[in-house]
Amino acid sequence: MKKYLTMFMIFILVLGALAACGPQDETEDETTKNDSDETVATTEDENKPEKLVVWEDKDKSPWLKDVAKAFTEEHGIEIEIKEVLMASDMREQLRLDGPAGTGPDVLTLPHDQIGELAVQGHLAEITVDSAVKDRFSQSSISAQTYDGKLYGLPKSSETPVFIYNKSLMEAPPETMDEVYSFSKDFTKDGKFGFLAVWDDFYMAHGVIAGNGGYVFGNENDIPNPQDLGLNNEGAIEGVSYIKQWYDEGLFPKGLIGENGGSTRDGLFGEGKVAAVMNGPWQFQPYKDAGVDIGIAPMPELPNGEYMKTFMGVKGYHVSSHSKNQEWATKFVEFITNDENSLIRFEQTQEVPTNLALAENPAITENEGAKAVALQSQNAIPMPNIPEMGTVWEPMANNLQTIVTGKSEPKKALDAAVKQISQSIEASHSN
Fold first, then answer.
1. What's the confidence (pLDDT) of residue 219?
2. Among 13-22, 24-33, 193-202, the least confident range
3. Cβ neighbours of residue 121 under 8 Å, at least 6 residues apart?
4. Which residues face 406 on adjacent strands?
5. How far apart are CA 97 and CA 207, in angstroms?
6. Residue 142 backbone phi and psi in degrees, to 5
7. Mean per-residue pLDDT for 38-66?
8. Are 258 and 346 a contacting pair, CB within 8 Å?
């Protein structure tokens, strides 16, 4: 009996213990969970900044102001927008203002500057869900990636196209041979058939690469700065073709150097030029000048190849000097979503890379966007490695000596490649 009584008492005690700990533990677990959730919410709220500072490209902020209001309403964070000229000032100001603590949380850049600024420690790697990256074309995400790390989200893509004055040219030619013949007949009395600032390497690249030249060779889709193709036979052939236009007086003498772009745009705006090679950033200024423009992909080169223009992908980035990188990343995700990217396109005409917008009528029925999309199929993304910074000046300087007749193509290109190689060796060797 004692044995059974003892076992019975143990059984009762076990049941009591289970009864006591069961619901109570669940309550404690729930309490712990609630405390944890409250802690996360409290921590997030404590880390929430009063405002984020955003640097947008000059004359491109109206759309962003509208979109930023929605972000502020949702999260209670004010957005301070400052316009900075992206082409020349954005990178330099970040280098100065970022470390000083007076820079932006978010800024916009062309993708070829990413590598250099990342290496220098001015850009923050961002982490986003795969669903966010899947919103964009793979090439545009690749352009925002350096050394396997994502440094921004795509804003838009751009590449030079053929822009013509419909009152002077009925339809865009399909080949550059046709453009050349048209120009020979049309160019007289201060008027020109076609203008391109081909001493600018960004513009000249389409001709050079279309003939077989290249900046850096590629190994597994990674640019190899030790393999330069800017003085090979194709590059020489391409530059010789460019020189022909200058030699035959089809381009005005002012179409060179720093004033080349303003000369082209001024003459086209005055109705003295039938067609030009330029980028989508110039669509609206030409329209504002009163020109009824038509827009098409660049015509084929005499060798039957397409012009392999440079493609640039602008993006939004987070400064590594920002104290609000998490919220800055959330803002970048917000302004590049499909809805807001469409708003930006409708106001700025900069073509987004969001896959969901590829078939949107607002884009497919837009002549400029369609031309950029078609030309982009033959375009080459600008290399975004730091070594790309060594290419621009030597190529521009030596292209100028070619088009002004001061040097022959092979000699000038050999000199450019030598300068680039020396700069890479001095500045970027391990």
1. 79
2. 13-22
3. 320
4. none
5. 38
6. -60, -35
7. 81
8. no
